[in-house]
Amino acid sequence: MIIKNGLVFQEDKTFSKKDLYIEDGRIVESADQVTDRTEVDAEGLYVLPGLVDVHFHGCVGEDFSDATPDGLQKIADFELSQGVAYLCPAGMTLPEDQL
Asked: Which whole number is the average pLDDT over 10-16?
């Protein structure tokens, strides 16, 4: 896959407009290394790695402390839709005797 024209996050915490080349789920150096030539136009968009939410109780009407499979899936789906690829749940919303 080729992500074109995006503002790509750099190691120095700035953004640079460039193309990004993905092969087998990894960023590669050049288009020559890409077998899937699908292009995504990211003009005006920021391109950055999946984010990590290091303190998260819940969202979309669900809470990690409830821990229902359906609720956890709703939370994960929402967070992923916002660019968050990893969660670190904070379960301190339960009463002390349940913790």
From this structure: 92
| Amino acid found at 92 | M
93-98 contact pairs (CB < 8 A, 24+)? 93/57, 93/58, 93/63, 93/64, 93/65, 94/65
DSSP H or E run through 58: strand 58-59
Helix, strand, or coil (residue 98): coil
Rounded to two decimals, the pTM is 0.60
Cα–Cα distances (Å) from 77 to 31, 58, 96, in that order, read: 31, 12, 29
What integer is the mean pLDDT of 12-31?
A: 93
